[in-house]
Amino acid sequence: MSAFLAVVQRDLRLALRQGSDAALVVAFFVLAVVLFPFGVGPEPQLLARIAAGVVWVTALLAALLSLDRLFQLDYEDGSLEALALTPLSLEALVLAKCLAHWLTTGLPLVLAAPVLAALLQLEGEGYLPLVLAMGLGTPSLSLVGAVGAALTLGARRAGVLLSLLVLPLYIPVLIFGVAAVDQAVAGISILPHLSILAAFLLAALPLAPLAAAAALRSALE
Amino acid sequence: MHRFANPARFMRLSERLMPWCTAGAVGFLAVGFYLALFVAPPDYQQGEAVRIMFVHVPAAWMASFAYLFMAVASAVALIWRHPLADLAAQAAAPLGAGFTLICLVTGSLWGQPMWGTWWVWDARLTSVLVLFFLYLGYIALVHAFDDPTRGARAGAVLALVGAVNLPIIKFSVDWWNTLHQPASVFRIGGPTIDRAMLVPLLVMAVGFTLYFAALLMLRIRTAILESRLRAARLGEVEIGAETVAGPAQ
Amino acid sequence: MMDFLAMGGYARFVWPAYGVAVLVLALMAIVSFRSWRHRQRLWSEISTTRRR
After folding, report:
1. Domain range enclosing B144
2. pLDDT (tens digit, 9 = 90+) per residue, A35-93?
3. Is B229 in contact with C39 (Cβ distance < 8 A)?
4. CB–CB of B121/B115 below 8 Å?
5. Which of A154, A156, A165 sits opposite B137 (nearest CB)?
C-alpha cells in the first residue's frame, strides 16, 4: 500500500513541479468551449441545448491531451523499467499512475465544468448532475486512456494513434454522461445513468490496469 | 495444441482445404445471390427493398464473427504464445473491417427507404460503427511499430479490450429501444423469419463464412511465406557478408 | 426485365447495396490473392538462385 502511495506521490510531485499539465488541459478545455458560441451563435436556447454535449466532448479531448505522456517520460528515461522491478505489481503501478493522472487532469476538469456550463447557459437543474456524472466518468477516462497510452508506447505517431484507439472506447461514457445532464434538465431521474457510469468505473478499475500492464510488459521486453 | 503450431503443417493442411473452401464459397454465394435476387418473394411491407437484407445480415454476422475470431486468436497468442495465433488475428482484421463496411453501407441504403433516414444514433448502429473503428485501430496499431512482435502483442491486447463491444452489439436491440429491429434469427424460441426468406439468408451466410475461411487461410499462408522470405533474405545477407569479409579464419 | 431492374421502385437502394457488397468482397479477394502471388514469385526466385 505504501509503495502504491509512493508512486502516486511521485507522479503528483512531478506533475506539480512541471505545473503545465493541469494548466494546459484546463486552458484547452476553456478555450475549446468558448469557441462554440462563436461558432454556433450566442442564442441562449441553442447553447443551453448543446451545453452538456459540448462540455463533455471538450473534456474528453482535453483528457486525451495529457495521456500520451502518462508512461512516455518514464519509459524514455528508464524509470519505468526501474519501477517495474520493484515489488509493486505492474497493475498497481498503472492504477497509481491513473490516480495521479486523474488528480492532475480529471479533477480540474470536473471543477471547471460547471463554470463553463454556465457560459453555455446550462439550466439550473443540470449543474449538480454534470459534476456528479463527470466525477464518475473522468476516472474511467483516465483508466481507459492509460490502456491506450500503454499500447502506443514507442509507436510511430503515438499521439494520434492513441486518440484513434481511445475515442471509440470513450463513447459509452460520453453517451451516458451527457444523457445524465439532459435528463436532469428535463426533470427525469438520472439514477440509472449514474449507476451505469459507476458500473463502467467499477469494471474499468480491475480490467484497465490488467490490459495496460500486459501492454507495458510487451514494451519493456 | 502444439501439433498445430507448426507452420509447415498449417501450409500442408491449408493447401488441401483451400480449394474446397473456395469452391464452396463461390458455389454458395452464387446460389445465394440468385435466390436473393430472383427467388425470394418481396416483403408485403417493404417490397423489393427487403432483398438488401440478404447482403446486409450475413455481412453483419460475419463482422461480429470475424472480431470474435480475432479476439480468441489474440487470447491464444497472449496466453500460449502460439506462433500462428498472431498471424491468424492479423489476417482476420481487414476481412472483418470489410464485412463491417458492407454492413454499415447496405444498412444505410436499407434504412433510408424503410426508416426515412440514412443514419440514426441508436445502440445497434453506434456499436457497429465502434466495431469498425476498432478494426481500423487494430490494423493501425499493429503496423505502428518497427518491431513486428511488439505490434502483434499490442494488437492482441487491443483486440481483447475491444471484445466488450461484441455483447453490446448483440444485445443492444434487446436492452434499448432501438430503431433497428430486434433479433429474428438467433433468438431463444427459434427464428421468426419466414422460410422463403430464411433459406436464401442461410445460403448467403454459409457462402460468406466459406469466403472468410478461404481468404483467412490465404492470408495466413501469405504471412508464413513472408516470414520465410524474411528469414531467407537475412540468411543471404549473412552469406554475402561472409563472402565480402573472406571465409571465417 | 425492366421490372426486375426497377426493383419495385427501390432500385436506387437495392443495386448500390449489392454493388458495394460485391465490390468489397471482390476487392478483398483480389488484394489477398495478389499479395500471395507476389510473395510466391519472390520465393521461387530465391529458391532458384540458391540452387545455382
Report:
1. 21-178+193-230
2. 999 999 989 999 999 999 999 999 999 888 888 888 988 888 888 888 888 888 899 99
3. yes
4. no
5. A165
Q: What share of chain B is helix, strand, coil (3-state, %, to 5)?
A: 80, 0, 20
Domain locations in chain C as residue ranges? 19-52
Predicted TM-score (pTM) of the model is 0.88
ipTM of the modeled complex: 0.89
Structural domain count of chain A: 1
Does B16 reside within a domain? no
Angle at A60 (CA atoms; ends A77, B159), nearest 5 degrees: 70
**Cα A69 from Cα A80, distance rounded (Å):** 12
Cell of C28: 478483398
Chosen from A68, A140, A165 to mutate, greatest number of chain B CBs within 10 A: A165
B221/C contact by beta carbon, under 8 A: yes
Nearest to B110 among C17, C32, C33 (CB): C17
Proportion of chain C in helix, strand, coil states, percent, rounded to 5:
95, 0, 5
Cell of B249: 579464419
Residue B47 is given by DSSP the state B
Decide if B131 touches C, using CB distance below 8 A. no
